[in-house]
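Backbones bend. Shown next:

***
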Amino acid sequence: MTLCIVENPPCCRSCTGFIVLSLWESVLGTLFDLFTFLTRIKLAYCVVLFLVVATILLSIFVVRVPLGGPRPGVSPTASSLLPPGAKLPSEVICTSRVHRSSWEPRPDNATANHQVPTTQQIAGMEPWGPSIGFDPKADTLRKQITGDFTGTTDEIFQWVACKWGISADIVRAEAIVESHWHQNQVGDWTTDSSSGLCPPGTRNGEGCYQSYGILQIKYVYNKSAWPMSRYDTAFNAEYVYGVIRTCYEGWITYLYDRTPTVGYPRYHAGDLWGCIGRWYSGGWYDQNALQYIASVKAQLASKEWLELGF
């Protein structure tokens, strides 16, 4: 080895570089050996840690993507709440605004989703007027009901929401509360033999179900909606939100005489949540209505339809 002395600066620079390089190679070798050792010893722990992190990331970024297709409701033209007196969109416009998708979480709805009422069935619907506690103006909305749309369950909700100027997410949320999005849902079993409670042909000798469909139309209060309420998804949803829109316009006159629970407003146009509660209870901010409103709001907040496997 060449001896470096102060009097030979070039030699010193060369020797110093050699020493530094040797030290660096030694450090790198030591680090590599240490890394190899740790890797061999802690490989199992690394695998476990990776799986934990991956699970957390999946729960954050993936769990809210619906199973079997793209996320619903992503259309930039999604419907929103229109105020009382607003001009409602036509069926043609609403059909064009529907975000089409192959996503269908309820394949059991397929037949009902593609069945529409006949002209005769629509013509046979009873008017909405004073005989049922509605303002005569309400019949202008009843005449707009056709049920004339086919598609997936979510596409039907979008179409209905657009027609009545209401948020599609509210329709989705209420449909979870009523049927979990199943058009074949039945409810309100009764053994009461009183005339008019059971739809034609539904009493089995012991009793019958009174309410039918994705938003549970009760026969005794909506007789002329039968049998479309049972067999046609679009009609069922459109009819219910036609009634809710009528309430929202301030045209359900008997509600003006109802006394709400203390702390809640009396009936007036423009109170959508009061009208959603009225669909369930028939009253205005009574206890049954308040419980129902809370259930729908909870579903609206959680948006269960966006969860994996819904």
Notes: The chain is about 45% helix and 5% strand. The radius of gyration is 33 Å.
